[in-house]
Amino acid sequence: MSDDLNKQIFKEEAYDLLSELEGALLELEENPHDMDVVNQIFRALHTIKGSGSMFGFEDIAEFTHEVETVFDMVRNSDLGVTPALCSLALKSRDYIKLMLDSDVQGEEVDSTLRSEILTGLKKLASGGEEASEDELTPEVTGDDESAEVEEAAPAQEHDYRIVLTAKPDAEVDESMLESLFEELVKLGEFKVVKRPDDSPDAPGPRSWECALVSNIGKDNVSDVFFFVDADLNIDISESGDEAVVEKKEVPPPAPTPKDVPAEEPVQTGATLKEEDMGEDEAPRRLGEYLVETGDVTQEDIQEALKKQKPLGQILAEDGKIEPEKIDQVVKKQAAVKEREASKRRQEALSSIRVAADKLDYLVDLVGELVIVQAQITQVVSERSDPQMTALAEELERLSDELRDSTLGIRMLPIGTSFSKFKRLVRDLSSELGKEIGLRTSGEDTELDKTVIERLGDPLVHLLRNSLDHGIETPEERTAAGKPPQGTIFLSAEHSGGEVLIRITDDGRGMAKEMIREKAIERGLITKDTEMSEKDLLKLIFEPGFSTAKEVTNVSGRGVGMDVVKRAIDSLRGTIDIDSKPGAGTTITIRLPLTLAIIDGLQVRVEDEYYVIPLSLVEECVELARQEVDENDSGQRILHLRGEIVPYIHIRDWFGIEGDNPPIEQIVITGVEGSRVGIVVDTVIGEHQTVIKSLSRVYKDVEGISGATIKGDGSIALILDIPSLVRRVIAESR
């Protein structure tokens, strides 16, 4: 594998780890005592550091090592989790991403920021007073732009004994070992004390014994072997770690419930350093040491272990606990182990990283296959050949399964998009001087990756508006009888063939009278215009519309909501607003699951064929010539079961020549709560539609969003129903 490919793989994995790291840091800020999250952060940093060093990203490895060291202190309870630490860690995450981006784009990284972050981390690690967030970027003085960070006090030196033992029947690559030794030389005074005897008659497994004198910690020595893929048993011990057999047996400490063993006994007679092993690990390490020194054999150790009693049996015989209770604990522990094992098996399921363009090409091929299958089905239907009909039906079944499977590959949990918004809310609420929390649900809801990618910017706009316009300041909320901290709730759920995304805040709500005044001021409506509450709220999506009293770096320029509307429309989605003064606002977005293949309703006008997205179709009714009616403004309307429904003729819209048939068909569509009829000559039926993009000449034609290829090879245009509905509603005002 080439170095360039290795580096590319590292970058992709590093970006994923940085995303995971950001989410974990935000979670840690909310739950400072959650050690599982601390370990998750440490593992992410550890992997970035190790992989970065392996693939030549030394700057990233060195910087990440400093951050990892601080979280190692947190992991060992030597340093507490504070808002200042979380803020610095988030800045560190951003700086690592900046270094990755600069390597991709060939830009220089500001070394001053690096110094500021490391200075802040060292201040926290040294036990200094907790810095406020504003103090976390100390001023760097001096002419040198990359000011040196104050050196920490020299660390204590450690004497390490490293034993590498080949597993039975394993071949060890000597060149790989030499490269490991070169890495160890960089850590301090290193030498190989003993190498294996390579003669065929040499007894025992092959082993290498090394000595290292260094001022770095044991975990950092272990890092050298983190990515070693070799059949080696690696044992690292420090001077003073060796087990010492005592003449007097020492009773074991009382175990916690999770330490109660199911089968294995707890031994005594060894004292080892606490940081190197748990209480139940001492006998194992003692046995290994005695075997290594040649004092006893492995068989002697096994015989000795058989004579020991399980801890539960000892406690039961001493009358400390009932035997039934021991059985219950053992069964419970076994169940917990089984669940953990099942979880590990699930996490270990193999996966493969595939380039997005390859996946898009696969979807295109499946789309072409669906078109060819439709053509075959049409040709076969014109012939009375039972065998060909059976084959065509089998091909249709297989192509449907292949289509569903391929589209399923493109589906991703929308939570991958949700996670980045927590950081947005955290930083922006601090900037605005507000206390705002973000809660999410439905992160496992799956959506096409293309939809998720294009959905990011609209959601950012909506969240920024909720933060700036929706949620009040703590003082305003307290005066209104609300808790000082506001809440934004971001959720996703499946609804039929769509996904519903809701953004709900418990803020002040939208001032409808202010919206009306701004709309009159901008000439969007007149003073006499009567509008429903829903239509009035939709005015905020008009270009340049804003109710902000002052322009800030967050909002107020009237740019954003119209962009959101256009973006959602381009995804063939809809957006709806519900707001109550003093109670908050809910914005609901409806999106199709995929943009590649949709179910459509095929219609015809003269010799032209069109497709209407089936998700927008409510019903189909007939329209006789004598039922045609117009309102005072000349708009055509249909009286449908007591409801007035405006409609539009596709023949007139696209200027198709020919006479209207005596009885036409109206397809009633529903968009954002508004019903509009689409008049066509004939409704043909459902059609599986593979969406094809239009060329530049046609892509700006109003009322058309794409095209598809029919079974006979002809083209059918896909109607842009939302734009047609908006036109009809605008003409009715």
TrEMBL record:
SMART domains, alphabetically?
Answer: CheW, H-kinase_dim, HATPase_c, HPT
**Bias-annotated ranges (Acidic residues):** 130-151
Species source reads: Pseudodesulfovibrio cashew
Which Pfam families would you find in this protein's record?
CheW, H-kinase_dim, HATPase_c, Hpt
What Enzyme Commission number does this protein have?
2.7.13.3
Q: Where is this region: Disordered?
A: 124-155, 243-282
UniProt-recorded name of the protein? Chemotaxis protein CheA
Q: Which SUPFAM superfamilies does this UniProt record tie to the protein?
A: ATPase domain of HSP90 chaperone/DNA topoisomerase II/histidine kinase, CheW-like, EspE N-terminal domain-like, Histidine-containing phosphotransfer domain, HPT domain, Homodimeric domain of signal transducing histidine kinase
